[in-house]
Fold this sequence. Notes:
By secondary structure, the protein is mainly α. It is built from ten helices and five strands, in the order ααββαααβααββααα.
Amino acid sequence: MTTDTGEPTLTIDELAARAGVTVRTVRFYGTKGLLPPPVIGPRRVGRYGPDHLARLSLIEELQRQGMTLAAIERYLRALPTGLSAHDLAIHRAVVASWAPEAVESVSREELGRLAGRPLDDGEVERLAAMGVIAPEDDGRFRVDTGLLRLGVELLGMPFSQETLLAARTVLIEHSRAAAAELSRLLREAVSERAPREVRSLSAHMHPLVVEALLTTFQRSLREELRAWLTHHEPEPRA
């Protein structure tokens, strides 16, 4: 079964596995109104799509930041209606940016649990090449948990490992340059303020700057892809 966009839908067991949570957790979020109800398919089986998965990932990220269910409900209620899975992923990225870097040492079994599914040797090697995980001498792995879900999603993209690594290099170089320039501008703007006020302003500005960068990049990428697709569209037949 597929959605209108051609993307496969998931059973509740598949959704829970992809999100790295239990079926009971999915059902609990549903009863609390945090997760939209599934689409009922043949044989009265509930089906979940990319929007459900993205929303579930956002809920889990909000919980990791220490938000209560009531606060999460208020946060979700304040979001614009009709957000796509991509839009929800941007919100999750902004929320995740508030937290410090989270690196854990896990076993191979725990790595699969965090990834939402078992990983074969080739996938583990690709994640290591992307810098998402690092093998340790005792057979365990150091994992950047903030990047793991993104890395697993990239495994399913039809790009070579060389392309992904080149893209990673481009993103790191340009994001560091943007961060350095923005930091300089903000430091100059608040140089006359008291240190305590500067720290408070910085904490407030951080998520706003991240969201601005994500939104700007999203729009720029969309424009670049649209221009490329327009240029490569086949000529209409006479």
